[in-house]
Design goal:
This is Plant/protein (DUF789). The protein is built from seven helices and nine strands, in the order ββααββαββααβββαα. With 229 residues, the chain is of the alpha+beta class. The chain has one domain.
Length: 229
C-alpha cells in the first residue's frame, strides 16, 4: 500500500501515517480479480485465486471523531473505554462467501460512516483491526480435483501499526489467522514450521477477539473458524 504521508503538529512532528482510503484503493484489483497463490501439488505448481471479502472491522479512535454532521449519529453513540472511542464496527452476518467484494462493501458502508475512508492511521487507537475472509474462486487450468483444495482463510490486521521512516510501501501483515478446510500437507508442509506458525497465529486471533469481547452472537464467522470457542 502506497501513499504513506508525514503528519506534522506540535505533539507528533513528522509522524508517518496512511489514510484508510489508501488501504481500500490498494485492494481494488485484488477485490475485483482475486490474488494468485502458488500451490504445490503432485502434478506440479498450480495457481489458485482467492478473493478478499470483509469479515469484520472495529475502528477505535484516540479522540472523539465525527467526519460529518450526517455521520450516522456516531458522535452520539460513541463511547470510550480502555481501547479508545469506538467509532465504527461491523461484523458480517450473511454467508461471507456470498458477500460483495471488500472494496464495494466498504464504500457502501462509508456512505453513512465517512471515517471509513477519511481516518488516518495515527487517529486510530492500537485496538483498531480488520478481518478479511479469503475464499477460493478458481484454479488456473481449472484443476479442481485436488484433495483439501477448498480451503478458506481469515486474516487479522491491525489498522494503526507503527510505520518505519524508510518505508515507502506499507504491508499490513496479519497478526492472526484462522483456517477452514485447510487440512493436510497441501497447506501445512510437515517438513517446515507451517503448522507451528499457523497455530501461533490462530491463538493470537483467539486472544485478540476475546480481549475485545467478540463472541459468536456478534460474529458468525467466529462459529465457522473457531469451533468450540
Amino acid at each position: 500500500m502506497r501513499s504513506i504521508c508525514n503528519q506534522q503538529d506540535d505533539e507528533n512532528p513528522a509522524e508517518r501515517y496512511f489514510v484508510l482510503s489508501d488501504l481500500w484503493k490498494s485492494l481494488e484489483e485484488t477485490s475485483a480479480y482475486g490474488v494468485p497463490t502458488e500451490v504445490v501439488v503432485p502434478r506440479g505448481i498450480k495457481i489458485q485465486y482467492f478473493a478478499p471479502l470483509l469479515s469484520a472491522i472495529q475502528l477505535y479512535t484516540k479522540k472523539p471523531f465525527c467526519a460529518t454532521s450526517s455521520d450516522s449519529g456516531t458522535h452520539n453513540e460513541m463511547h470510550n473505554n480502555e481501547q479508545g472511542y469506538l467509532y465504527f464496527e461491523y461484523f458480517e452476518t450473511t454467508p461471507t462467501e456470498d458477500g460483495m467484494p471488500i472494496v464495494d462493501k466498504v464504500r457502501n458502508l462509508a456512505t453513512n460512516f465517512a471515517g471509513l475512508e477519511s481516518l488516518r492511521s495515527t487517529e486510530l487507537s492500537p485496538a483498531s483491526w480488520l478481518s478479511i475472509y479469503w475464499h477460493n474462486i478458481y484454479w488456473i487450468d481449472e484443476y479442481q480435483q485436488i484433495e483439501n483444495s477448498q480451503a478458506c482463510f481469515l486474516t487479522f490486521h491491525k489498522l494503526s501499526p507503527p510505520l518505519q521512516d524508510e518505508l515507502e510501501v506499507l504491508s499490513l501483515r496479519p497478526f492472526g489467522l484462522a483456517t477452514l478446510k485447510a487440512n493436510g500437507a497441501l497447506w501445512k508442509n510437515p517438513e517446515t514450521g507451517d503448522g507451528v506458525l499457523a497455530a501461533t497465529l490462530h491463538d493470537a486471533a483467539v486472544t485478540w477477539l476475546a480481549e475485545r469481547g467478540v463472541d459468536q452472537a456478534r460474529y458468525p464467522d467466529f462459529i465457522s473458524f473457531f469451533p468450540g470457542r
